[in-house]
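Contributing new records

If you add data, match the layout below exactly. Sequence lines come first and carry their own label; structure lines follow with theirs. Keep one chain per record. Anything else will be rejected by the validation script.
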Amino acid sequence: MNPTVQRLIANFGAALSSLREQGTRVFFSALGVFVAMVAILLLIGIARGVQKDVAGQVRDLGVNVLVVLPARVDTSQMSFNPNLGGQSYLKPSHAEALARQPGVVQTALLTFIGGGISFGGTQAFPVLIAATPSWFEMHPTQLKEGRVYGPADKGKRVAVIGGVAAKKLFGKTTAIGKEVLINDEEYAVIGVTEDEASENSLFSMGGFQNVVYVPFREFHAQTPDAQIDRIMVQSQPEAEPRELVKRLDAVLGQSLNAQQYSVLTQEDLLGLVYRLMNIVTWLLTGLTSIALFVGGIGIMAVMVMSVTERTREIGIRKTVGAQRTDVFQQFVFESILIALVGGAAGFVFSALVSWVLASYTVIKPELTPSLVLFGLGVCVLVGVLSGMVPAIRAGRMEPVAALRRE
């Protein structure tokens, strides 16, 4: 075996032996790194889980679906026009014009309705949406029971409710045929959607499984002043999204100001989500770095005291033939091992907490192998940097001077 490798192994063994004799000190010095590792894995893992959840909600819009918003959205800067939550200038005529464009299969109109739904004194507050029947053709809708409304339901007050609202209002009994009150207006339930994965989602209360759909035309006949909040456009599979967006943008631009609308693809929406979550992740990383700094200072303080207390040991090792690099490596190895002990314990604790959260709550942390390796790598780096100064100090000690010290 290479002599250099043999010395490294010997120095590593000396570090292990020394740490076994300092169990209490190792525990307290590793505690800071443990806290930092837990902070890194849990906070960033939860942020990634939220990102995955939101991305899933965006993908639930359907295949080859573009979204027309009633305001200008700058996807490069994540700057939203305040009008996005206010006045909409979108009209049914805009949807009809878009539907005639090459590459477009059909369009759907959506209006968000305020208020809630009640049955027999029980109330629920899902997302209320007035949608045209074509929405169900472009949006994948899995039904637990019943059906969705269509052209045959013209003039009828019917509703399709989500699984979350149905469970709260009707429990385990069927909802089909029941009359519910939506903003004090009676609607007959004809369908209940189901998606267990989404019902267990962090955003199920604002996702497609907590939605009550009512026919768009009937709602607007009752509420003529209601605005159109979204125009959904289903494109043909072979249509190139960016080129289609340009054509649709040009059509809308003939009657609307550029600040009054945006045409976005699912990739645009996901890009906004990812940019926002990346900012959050970096902020969390910055916060957890404070815990790492504190943990590193703790290891350094312990190692400095260890060098002072083990001066005679260092002198004896050098007297029997240990070189400066041997002593240096031993103390660096000790520092790294302390950091790894804290990091490994932090990983085990984080994995346990993540499992509990994923099993009993709607929070689903994402502890990916890359994230775990990143955390452990940072722990090693903290160990190296924290042990460097004490190791240099120990390596520079003269054997005779070290033996003379009590």
